[in-house]
Design brief:
Blueprint: E1 6-15, H1 26-33, E2 45-51, E3 56-62, H2 66-77, E4 94-104, E5 110-115
Antiparallel strand pairs: 1-3, 1-4, 2-3, 4-5
Amino acid sequence: MSVEYRHKRYIRIRLVDSSLYTFKSTDDATTKISFKDSWNTNDPIVTYDLEDSNQTLVMTIEHHSEDKQVGWKAAIDAEWGINAWPWNGNNSEQTIEHFKTEWLHADGSVSSTKILL
């Protein structure tokens, strides 16, 4: 993989009482969020970490090339719409929030940050 085509996505789950869900593990997080197949477009390497006292799932997504990264992002972006999300998690009892994206330089430092909420 190329360290030139990496970014991080920050995702959490807000419960109906407005509190944040605390994940038991990265497996618990990915199961509860239940990412759609589009997240596998162009075969990215994805690593998962938990931050913020296990209330935030941080995905580091790495691609072979800029073209693969652009295609992957287009596939994810296409999932968004009215009452449509890029995951299958149960939004009736929780709200899945993708609240920040960080685009990374080759050395891993942050190139730019987009706050989504």
